[in-house]
Amino acid sequence: MQQLEEEISSDPSRLDSPARITIPVHESGRDRVMEVPQSCYRGAEEVLDLCPGSSISVAYHPLFGSHDDLILLELDEKLIPDVIHQRVTLRGQPDEDAVFCTQSRTYAIKFVGNSNSVFLIPPSDQSKFYHNRQDCDGKDYSQNVVASVIKVAPGNMELAEVAPRLDKLKLLLSENPYSYEEEVGMDCLEEKEIPRTGLYNWDDIINKIQASDDELMSGLQALSAVEINGYWRIVDEKYMNTILRMLLHNSVLNDWSLSSLNEDEVVTVLELDGFPRALTYHCLHVYGSKVDENGKSCVWKLDERRVCIHFAREILREGKRKMEDFMKEWMQKIPEGMQASFDFLEGEVLTERIGIEKWIRSFSVSSLPASPADRFSILFRERPKWEWKDLQPFIRDLKVPGLSSEGLLLKYTRRTQPTPNAEPILSAR
User: Fold this and answer.
1) Residue ranges, CATH 1.10.10, the chain
2) How far apart (Å, rounded) are the C-alpha atoms in residues 429 and 413?
3) Which residues on adjacent β-strands are paired with residue 218?
């Protein structure tokens, strides 16, 4: 892109005449303007090859016009390889502002007007002008060529990195969770009879969600989604609970160590119990982690924190409980050999005192929106005032490019401290 200050000597709408634009070149305190016949028009190469201190005249291209299909995009140098190798996409529905996505990042697009004129000069191989450096009168204009302008751009698009817009992903996948009833029904239906309502494959997701591929995959993992028959699904909580309980039951029957589960053996046994292999693998991924992979079979270890959180959620799904009753039931549900800690429940529950009794209820960070404004709005509707130690678990996952955690707090909260030794109190700004 060559940015120039223009001096228009004729009406650009009169394309039947050789309208001229000249570039003033300051040389020894005076402007020098070159005039050449229209037949010596050249393309962008002539401008790109200009040496410092040299000059060139420009003129209207025969196809000069608004060309609304041509838009300038200003890029950071690190993004240029992605654009050149076509590793970028524009994503968004007709009623949404489009975003620009690379493999791993998402950018908002903003139009910025230019105070100076920006001339678009097409390459020679896309312009209809003579390539011969001699005009029809035989004169040589090799030193006095003219670059042909096809459009004057009023501005350009700029990119600003933003957080992926993943809230819609959970809404889509929640339309049709994968349940035990569906699993049983699948055995009775032919492929063409299986209903597709509320089902989304990868292509559907990238067309509907404004996020890069890597961010989308991270979002699917955060939702514990699994690909079943080509569609990404959230597995119904009750069904996941059944699979996990059956795994734990078989660990007792077969004397399996929860810190050393043989993948092949676990999958085979649960398949005999009627659970699909894909869902048994999914259960291991959701509640465990690989500790050894020797090429033949993997060894898994159940994650103490994730398993304990699962059973806490199961208890609190029915509503708030007295702390004493909750802790008693929670300890009874925890598998033998695991140690539950109340610290595991940071970002999963809220506690409150009613009279002399302490109560606990479910309030999971996973259910909160990813947008900082929406997140803080919900948090302050839940509690007008928060201590930092209580608020922090519910905002630590917020990631806004260019804005630190301290910046988020300054933007959305007001900090008060009654006394120097008192805990700071955060309220809505």
Assistant:
1) 237-302
2) 5
3) none
Tokens describing residue 296? 């033949």
- Which amino acid, one-letter code, is at 357? E
Tokens encoding 114: 């230019």
Rounded-to-10 torsion of CA 252, 256, 258, 259? 160
142-167 pLDDT, tens digit per residue, is 445 688 889 999 999 999 999 999 99
Would you say 427 and 380 are in contact if contact means Cβ atoms under 8 Å apart?
yes
Q: How far is CA 332 from CA 247, 336, 360, 369, in A?
A: 17, 9, 17, 33
Rounded CA-CA distance 306/2 in Å is 57
Q: Which of 381, 373, 366 is nearest to 400 (CA)?
A: 373
Residue 312 tokens, joined: 């806490």
DSSP label at 189? Answer: S
In the predicted structure, residue 391 carries a pLDDT above the cut 80: yes
The strand ranges marked E within 121-172 are: 146-149, 151-162
Question: For the residues 209-213, what does the mean pLDDT come to?
Answer: 96
CB neighbour burial string for 57-90, b if at least 16 within 10 angstroms, e if fewer: bbbbbeebeeeeeeebeeeeeebeebeeeeebee
Looking at the structure, give the CATH architecture of the domain made up of residues 237-302.
Answer: Orthogonal Bundle (1.10)
The answer to whether the Cα torsion of 296, 302, 306, 309 is positive or negative is: positive
Query: Cα(21)–Cα(47) distance, rounded to whole angstroms?
Result: 14
Q: How far is CA 355 from the centre of its chain?
A: 45
364 touches 309 (CB < 8 A): no
